[in-house]
TrEMBL record:
Lineage top rank: taxon: Bacteria
Lineage summary: Bacteria, Bacillati, Bacillota, Bacilli, Bacillales
Name used for this protein in its record: Uncharacterized protein
Length: 71
């Protein structure tokens, strides 16, 4: 990952009522490379996460989306 990589946090929540899905909520927040590095220990340590990575050349990250599931 470089300072030119675009980094997004997706906050994702599903609301349930009994066994039915009542609603889905997604919110994307673009963060800077410096903020990502500063929050890196937080991202590794807590919650249920999923990461999507896009790379045009297969070695440098162009875009990264970190999906954080909200309980």
């Amino acid at each position: 990952m470089t300072a030119d990589s675009r980094i997004y946090i997706c906050y994702y929540k599903i609301d349930y009522f009994l066994d039915s899905i009542k609603g889905e909520h997604k919110r994307y927040e673009k963060i800077s490379y410096d903020d990502f590095i500063a929050q890196n220990s937080e991202l590794h340590g807590s919650g249920n996460k999923h990461v999507n990575v896009w790379s045009a050349d297969g070695s440098n990250i162009d875009n990264i989306v970190i999906i954080e599931w909200i309980e």
